[in-house]
Amino acid sequence: MSFPGVQDTRPNWDEFMEGIWQRNPVFVMVLGMCPTLAVTVSAINSISMGLATTFVLAASCWLVSLMRKMIPKEVRIATYIVIIATFVTVTDYAIQAISLEMYEALGAYIQLIVANCLVLGRAEAHAARFPPMAALFNATGMGLGFTLGLVMIGGVREILGSGTLLGVPLFGADFQPWVVMVLPPGGFFVMGAWLLLFAIYRARKQRPDKPGIKPDAVKQAS
Amino acid sequence: MAQESLGQILVTTILSGNFVLAMFLGMCPFLGVTHSLAVAFPLGLATTFVIAIASLSAYLLNMVLTPLHLEFLRLICYIVVIAAAVQLVEMFVKKHSPSLFRALGIYLPLITTNCAVLGVALFQTAREYDFMQSMTFAIGGGAGFTLAMVLLASVRERIQLSDVPGVLQGTAMSLMLAGILSLGFMGFAGVGG
Asked: For A196-205, what is each residue's pLDDT tens digit?
């Protein structure tokens, strides 16, 4: 497959940073919501989930990109899914071997990385069009951006919901935890609040040259 | 866990353990297609159908894979079966209701990557449900998903008529609404044991 619009396919730093900030998967593209909201009850859970997703994302994008000329167009989605499922199985067993405690905390959500739209979206939108190194670079950036998003949500939920950060108590013994923050509604509220903050920030900046962000984000939110 | 009665499973998965509002499964269509009721409801039904097929297939696959000690192939098998089921639904909808097919758009094939579908297969395996329990879990989960979709779509349709501050429009608003709905559903905790 060749795309006339693609000029520079070498990996570069901008592309890496793009995934972390300008096109952050959690806050700008709003992809991969299920793990984002489900496992972010504490910062450590968020970090593990983020890194697991980063590994799956980077490995499958690299392999998809390596095989992009071999995969027939008609069955590409099925092929991507099988590649992703393979790496998720690897991750699943690896986490089980490294930390059983973490494996139980994350539960079925590790295997649900397969159904994370971010991974499939990146494989389809980027890895299938670029050479392996560029795809790996972009996917790692996206993965770290995803991890950053999870930690920003997980950190807030842990601080407010349990009064700790990474297990370290932050407030005195008489701190009354906001239990709702570690329950399901807290996930929606914290995520909504972050989006709201970013929307306010964007409105403040008044950048008329970037009006495309919002509709783009809505279109890609799958 | 395997001792729950069918009624308990049904009530729990629809209300207190709602797939979307309590377990965060299937967030993408929940935030993506709930702008209008006319689209949200059929998509909920289509997803329920796929969930039921996925649950049935997962149960049959487990019967084959477990005696052969091929548990590590579980995930790959599930996702392939789900992809095939979605393809079937897509062909059916395209033939019988082209207008609905156009309205659902990209979200129809995306049922494949709906966590709720894969989630049912994974959770019923993890909880060691038997055949009837699995099917009840799947139907309840689908019904709960449809209920959450319909509720959020109805609220969002009304919100469209009101004056919302500019920065709050879009996903931020939907998430806040979902949070309030989720808060309401927590009130069902304990119903059905």
From this structure: 888 888 788 7
Nearest CB to B115; choose among A89, A115, A191: A115
Tally of domains within chain A: 1
Give residue-wise pLDDT tens across range A68-82: 888 887 778 788 888
Percent of chain A's residues with pLDDT above 70:
87
Asked if B80 and A82 come within 8 Å (Cβ–Cβ), the reply is yes
Does B86 score more than 60 pLDDT? yes
Chosen for mutation from B79, B124, B156 (greatest number of chain A CBs closer than 10 Å) is: B79
Which residues 125-154 in chain A show a CB within 8 A of chain B?
none
What pLDDT is attached to residue A67?
87
How many angstroms separate the CA atoms of A168 and A150, rounded?
Answer: 19
Residue A150 maps to a domain: yes
The residue among A106 and A217 whose pLDDT is bigger is A106
Is A106 part of a structural domain of the chain? yes
Residue B98 lies in a domain: yes
The residue segments making up the domain with residue B122 are 6-162
The Cα of B97 is separated from the nearest Cα of chain A by a number of Å equal to 22
A197 touches chain B (CB under 8 A): no
Contact A170, A42 (CB under 8 A): no
Asked, for residue B135, whether it belongs to a domain, the answer is yes
CA distance A12 to chain B (A): 30
Report the distance separating Cα B142 and Cα A6, nearest Å.
42
Q: Is residue B111 part of a domain?
A: yes
B75 touches A: beta carbon within 8 Å: yes
Taking only residues 11 to 50 of chain A, the set having a beta carbon closer than 8 angstroms to any beta carbon of chain B reads: 30-31, 33-38
Report how far residue B149's alpha carbon sits from residue B152's, in angstroms, rounded to the nearest whole number. Answer: 5
The boundaries of the domain holding residue A40 are: 25-154
Domain total in chain B:
1
Residues in contact with A154: Cβ distance below 8 Å, sequence separation at least 6, in sequence order:
A39, A40, A41, A42, A43, A45, A46, A47
Residues in chain B: 193
Residue A110 binned pLDDT confidence (cut-offs 50, 70, 90)? confident
Chain B residues touching A217 at Cβ < 8 A: 170-171
Q: So what's the ipTM on this one?
A: 0.81
- Is residue B173 in some structural domain? no
